[in-house]
């Protein structure tokens, strides 16, 4: 089943929450958490989301290679400049999905359109 979410004038967390719920299939009466629902979720107008400038600089994303002293922190603004708004939405939805073998399979059915 295909679902479309309009992200215009919405906050990132609300859009990601709705997309994660639909990817899980929680809206279906035949919901089973161990089976991929097969829903395709498309987020449109991702570039028109509400993103306050203070939060763009304050929110940091961390990455670590495993070596001592190799933690890198980048702000949301830097992520948008390098990878685009699509990366923010995809990352937020990915973190909201259950951490299991189906997480990667479910995130592949998410389409983000600027």
Query: Which residues sit in consecutive blocks of at least 5 with pLDDT less than 50?
Result: none
Strand content: 15-25%
CATH topology descriptor: Ribosomal Protein L13p, Chain: A
Shape: globular
Q: What is the share of helical residues?
A: 25-40%
Q: Total number of helical segments?
A: 5
The overall pLDDT, averaged over residues, is 95
As an assembly, this protein is single chain
Query: Biggest sheet: strands, sense, closure?
Result: 3 strands, parallel
Query: Which structural category fits the helices and strands?
Result: alpha/beta
Q: How many β-strand runs?
A: 5
Strand order of the largest sheet: 1-2-5
The ordered string of helix (H) and strand (E) elements is: EHEHEEHHHE
Task: Tell me the layout of helices and strands.
Elements: E1 2-6, H1 12-24, E2 40-44, H2 53-58, E3 60-63, E4 72-75, H3 76-83, H4 85-96, H5 103-107, E5 110-112
Parallel strand pairs: 1-2, 2-5
Antiparallel strand pairs: 3-4
Helix pairs in contact: 1-4, 3-4
Output the keywords.
mRNA binding; single chain; alpha/beta; Ribosomal_uL13_bac-type; globular; 114 residues; Ribosomal Protein L13p, Chain: A; two-stranded antiparallel sheet; three-stranded parallel β-sheet; Ribosomal_uL13_sf
């Amino acid at each position: 089943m295909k679902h479309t979410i309009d992200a215009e004038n919405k906050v990132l967390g609300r859009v990601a929450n709705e997309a994660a719920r639909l990817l899980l299939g929680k809206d279906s009466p035949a919901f089973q958490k161990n089976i991929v629902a097969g829903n395709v979720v498309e987020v449109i107008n991702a570039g028109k989301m509400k993103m306050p400038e203070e939060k763009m600089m304050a929110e940091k994303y961390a990455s670590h290679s495993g070596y001592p002293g190799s933690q890198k922190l980048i702000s949301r603004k830097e992520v948008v400049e390098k990878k685009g708004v699509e990366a923010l939405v995809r990352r937020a939805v990915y973190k909201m999905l259950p951490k299991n073998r189906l997480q990667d399979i479910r995130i592949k059915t998410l389409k983000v359109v600027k």
